[in-house]
Amino acid sequence: MRNKIFQSVLILTLAALPAHAQEYDLQELYKLAKAKDPTVSRAEARLEVGKADKEIAMAALLPRVSANGSIRQIQHQVLYYGKEPINGDYTGFSYGAGAAVSLFNMSSYFQLSAADAGISSADTGLQAARQDLIVRLLDAHLRYLKAVANEKLYRDELTRVGKVLAQSEAFLKAGTGDIIAVYEAKARMDSAAAEMIKTEGILRLALQNLSSLTGIVVDGVKDIAVDKSSGPQPAELEWWVATMQQRSPALLQAKEDLLQAEEYRKAARAGHLPTFSGNGGYTVDKGSTFLPKVETRQWYVGLQMNIPIYSGGETTARTRRALAGEAERRAMFDDAQTQAIRRLKEAYLNLTYNQSLVEAYQRKHESSELQLKAVQKGRDIGTRTAIDLLNAEQTYAISRRDLTSALYDNVQRQIELKAAAGILNEDDLAAVSVASTMAK
Predict the structure, then answer these.
(1) CA 248 to chain centre
(2) What does the DSSP assignment read for 380-431?
(3) Which of 83, 210, 240, 348 gives 20 to 30 Å between its CA and that of 293?
(4) Cis peptide before 18 (omega within 30 of 0)
(5) Model confidence pLDDT, tens digit, residues 268-284
(6) pTM, whole model, 2 decimals?
(7) Domain encompassing residue 157
(8) Which residues have C-beta within 8 Å of that of residue 130, sequence separation ≥ 6?
(9) Counted domains in the chain
(10) Taking Cα atoms as reference points, which of 67, 14, 41, 97 lies closest to residue 281?
């Protein structure tokens, strides 16, 4: 009866797992996630804003051309010019075109430099968002693969324990068995069934996370080849720190934000400086009180100077605000440096530790394989029990699962280290080779 109950639990648990109608590889998932991810979308929008800001800043330095025209119906009366009032009624008009160009405006020049820094900041921000997406997507991908490996472990365990339990009960009925062996097999089946249900929940959560990242229903993903591992390459931490200081998008973005704040401060302070501009044009004007039919046409060219004297304190206030903004950006840059170095060292140490862990799990796996072969021989000659064989098989399966999980982590840690150093790109996903089928 108990066997039937656990068989039902196993069948229901396995039936609850999703049918893998379509399996996606990493690059397919990344394309979907990149098109849907709000962080990447915000970064792309900010880059477009930066480009528009530069065009606006440039427009202040480019020539401005305008045209105008008007027509008017005038009735006038002139008094006290002669003995009698002079009445008139005429149609007048005017039109013209003009152009003006800034010759000297330091504030606009600094605004343009600030816009350039803003574009650089937005561009590095977009790189950072894409790198972060790669890390998050790979993490979700590997969480699912680990859950699949666990599901296989406990499914096989249930199958093995079920056979041992049936065999132990048969021996007990025949009078050659041990009730302790039956109880132990039942306890192991209880534990495996509970872990199987827990793993099924983790699997569903992993699929939900992948679906949230990609915006589609993900039923399964393809496995990745993890037959080997490596530590940091190169192994020198100083190389990674130097690379991070030159390439980290988060650090470069903070640096460009600081530069932009400095240029805004210079632009605000330049509001005290005089500006020079040139202008010229052509105008036509017809109609006046005493000469209503006279038409005047003229070309003009000139130079204009504007010296700010007093603007109600606006320029001083803008400068003070820009100084405060610059101080804020400087503090943010210092914090970004500290956080970037911390993240890089953590990623470096995590990969170094993981490589040591892989080597340890490899040795453990080899030892468990030898142990399993020895127990199998002992079982064949009657010196080992079915429980001994079950323990050896479980130890071997767990060592294989742990080694695979550590190899998955090695891939993740290498990607995280590259991201921390700022050298991660989309081509690195292609370097994570894709296996033809999922690990079962």
Answers:
(1) 13
(2) HHTSS-HHHHHHHHHHHHHHHHHHHHHHHHHHHHHHHHHHHHT---THHHHH
(3) 83
(4) no
(5) 999 999 999 999 999 99
(6) 0.84
(7) 2-61+105-273+308-431
(8) 34, 40, 43, 426
(9) 2
(10) 97
